[in-house]
Amino acid sequence: MGLLGGFIVHPRTVTTREEHGEFVLVLNDWQHFYTSEQHQVLMASGQFYPNSMESLTQPSNIDYFEAVDGSRAAEALVTSILINGRGQYFDPRAANNSSSTTPFEYLNIISAPNNATYRLRLINGGSVLSLKFSIDVHPLTVIASDGIPFAQPLIVDQLIIGLGERYDVLIKAATDKTRNYWMRVDTMDKNNNPRWHARAILQYMSNTTIPTTQPRNCTATQPCLILNCPFAQYGPKLNDNAMSLICLTPQNITTHEDYLDRGLLNETVVPNVRKTLQMTMVEGTDERAAFESFNYIGMQYPSMDIPILYDARHAREQFACFNRSLDTNTGDKCYHTVMARYNDVVEFLLVNHDDDQHPLHLHGSYFHIVEQGLAVLNSTTGEFLANNPNVDCNEHAECKCIETTEGCKKNNMRLVKDTIQLSKGGYMRIRFRATNPGIWLFHCHTEPHLSRGMVIALHIAEDRLFQSIASHSTNIADHCISIVLAFAFCFIYLATD
Ligand SMILES: [Cu+2]
């Protein structure tokens, strides 16, 4: 099956830490087959719902994910959620004895001193679903994301972690150390599907007693805080029109001063490269399946006969997109690229007018999120009502910022990350400096979306690439097994220069 685990890169110098220990928690959703298998069936059958691949043969039996705001994730059949590879599988529709369980993951903090602090490194390594993390009776002090510290810690009850995102969280030992506590990983599923919950145990007792703890009761008078909501309101209001859950969005987070590039935050700066990427779905026909794309262009990777870093231009020309308008008739894909020269300021306006949430991830650089615009929700039900009115897109994925609003002009954020969740109906404006030469992917982290084409390749400082590669005598092609791996491997290769 392969290997799955956290890979933590520490800074060269580590300041003295007060934590008594740390735990790496890899969280992920689980399917009973590979995305690639699903993809093949989809492409062959020309439809999105590969019912025959699941033991559940009736389409009405498939668990479709719908988030509390009404957005979707992907047409994939997630059967379990795992914490460090451990989880439970059960089929709520099957007869008895159909469930399987693996032993719970225990985080051992037996004999934790009073007020001891522990660091959790949370990673959503899944392929389809954003995950919601909490520990009973333990508030979460969230201090960093994607390896970059926040200006101020945020103390919350729950934390939403999008696909590919990483969060550093501190927890304090509980006052009552005579019991064990549940650690919970849920989704944003509106229908609370029983399959999509995982549990681990924060262990204070020397025995492995199963906890009996409960999550905090979120009420109108004592609402719970959820950090990193991709929308402004989590679920319906209570009967008295109050909220029991308060959403903190990325706009509530600011990156630590030391990690901010003031030049990028400046509203008057004119980026050298500007690109709108709209998350779009190319419609399927009888002959072919639909696919997720940026600007209705699906990614076709160039052949690896000549390693892409040896001849980036050749790669670009092989399946060039020629700035063509959409070709929804053929659904043909091409090598979708953005070029930048060394030290260019690159700005992307990312617009999601699709039905799905899309977690977006950049390789090779961090970006500054300078503006966020969220969808308009029904203020009673919390469900999607309309796209954010600041941006308008036509059927050719040409988006423009509405003149009468401040959207796309006025920065309202200062957050540095390499992965963000873009919710249905929302947009974000991100900027980064092209100082890391290479061929880097920017893609949706939802695996079926990535696999079907929602990805773009950034060619940064092509003129510096060959120089850099030529100074190595090893045949780089030996290292570059697949295109995605190539980008990861070759990054390390270049970084040693
Ligand atoms: Cu996506």
Task: List the main descriptive attributes of the protein structure presented here.
eight-stranded mixed beta sheet, metal-binding, Cu_oxidase_Cu_BS, Cu-oxidase_fam, mainly beta, seven-stranded mixed beta sheet, globular, disordered C terminus, 497 residues, oxidoreductase activity, copper ion binding, Immunoglobulin-like, binds copper (II) ion
Secondary structure tally: strands: 30
The termini sit apart by 34 Å
Bound molecules: copper (II) ion
Tally of structural domains: 2
Helix content: 10-25%
CATH architecture of the largest domain: Sandwich
Q: Which descriptor suits the 3D outline?
A: globular
Structural class: mainly beta
- CATH class type of the largest domain: Mainly Beta
Biggest beta sheet summary: 8 strands, mixed
Describe the overall structure.
By secondary structure, the chain is mainly beta. The C terminus is likely disordered. Strand 8 and strand 9 form a beta hairpin. The strands form six sheets. It has an eight-stranded mixed sheet with strand order 4-3-2-1-6-11-8-9, with no helix packed on it. The chain has a seven-stranded mixed sheet with strand order 5-13-12-7-10-14-15, with no helix packed on it. A six-stranded mixed sheet has the order 17-16-19-28-21-26. The radius of gyration is 23 Å and the shape is globular. The protein folds into two domains: 201 residues, Cupredoxins -  blue copper proteins (Immunoglobulin-like), CATH 2.60.40.420; 236 residues, Immunoglobulin-like. The structure holds copper (II) ion. The site of copper (II) ion has 7 residues, from loops. InterPro entries: Cu-oxidase_2nd, Cu-oxidase_C, Cu-oxidase_fam, Cu_oxidase_CS, Cu_oxidase_Cu_BS, Cupredoxin. Belongs to the multicopper oxidase family. Keywords: Copper, Metal-binding, Oxidoreductase.
